[in-house]
Design brief:
about 270 residues, alpha/beta, TIM Barrel, 9 strands, about 50% helix, about 15% strand, globular, amino-acid biosynthesis, Trp_synthase_alpha_AS, EC 4.2.1.20, Aldolase_TIM, aromatic amino acid biosynthesis
């Protein structure tokens, strides 16, 4: 359990609102500029942030994040750069939880215990592991628990109630509820299945339930905030940087969108 992450989510709940959690990949738009991009999320009002570990086969991610991952990989990003971005962000924002969103293969290659130790040393709050089955998570969970790192698993509308109970029993920090079936990306509608998924997930756990996949506007953030503990936004931030004429313009656009979304989660 990560007390920093739990504290931030509890503080948002005490204010009768959802938390805003922003995502951007490391190495994007450049290796050195990634921390500035994440800082823009925080400056705009994100309560917590996810830093993605770029992957060559991001099965959960849609074309927007795939494009950003490809840019990051062509920039030469490595796992050590991801951890360095975490270190820079946590050093500048000691009260903001910073999680790494990563597929399991890079962690497995790096070494689960080593990755957990290096993430903790960088000030990270934990990991979101979308493709790691809980049945195979024992070594990671042991290392994470020893170091006080949260382990966030993903549930989907297709998850049956018994499966939800299995997943939530193993996770810590919060539960990541995928609002729609499919990959990440901004959508006109967030997905009618999200509220039902949150309700079913809450029946199995006391952990906060945060909803991601598809939120891109303040109105959508407010819609999700009405039934979720947190609103997770990624592709919309990535798109702002992709559309910008320069990295600096991209950071400004991210900051602006984060401010709009932060206002949205307060209108539940």
């Amino acid at each position: 359990m990560n007390t920093q992450l739990s504290g931030v989510l509890a503080a948002a709940k005490a204010e009768d609102r959802a938390a805003l959690i922003g995502y951007l990949p490391a190495g994007f738009p450049t290796i050195d500029g990634a921390a500035q991009a994440v800082q823009a999320l925080i400056d705009g009002g994100a309560d917590a942030v996810e830093i993605g570990l770029p992957h060559s086969d991001p099965v959960l991610d849609g074309p927007t994040i795939q494009t950003a991952d490809d840019i990051a990989l062509r920039n030469g990003v490595r796992t050590r750069d991801v951890l360095e971005t975490v270190r820079q962000v946590t050093a500048a924002n000691p009260t903001v939880p910073v999680l790494v969103m990563t597929y399991w293969n890079p962690v497995d290659r790096y070494g689960a215990a080593r990755f957990a130790a290096d993430l903790a040393a960088a000030g990270g709050a934990g990991c979101i592991l979308p493709d790691l089955p809980v049945e195979e998570a024992g070594p990671w969970l042991a290392a994470a628990e020893e170091l006080g790192l949260a382990t966030v698993f993903v549930v989907a509308p297709s998850s049956r109630d018994q499966r939800l109970a299995t997943i939530t029993a193993s996770g810590t920090g919060f539960v990541y509820a995928a609002a729609v079936m499919g990959v990440t990306g901004s959508r006109n509608q967030v997905g009618e299945m999200a509220e039902d998924l949150v309700r079913r997930t809450r029946a199995t756990t006391d952990l906060p339930v945060c909803v991601g996949l598809g939120v891109s506007t303040a109105a959508q953030a407010a819609e999700v905030a009405a039934f979720a503990d947190g609103v997770i936004v990624g592709s919309a931030f990535v798109q702002r940087i992709l559309d910008a004429a320069s990295p600096e313009a991209g950071y400004a656009a991210v900051r602006e969108l984060a401010a709009e979304l932060a206002e949205g989660v307060r209108k539940r």
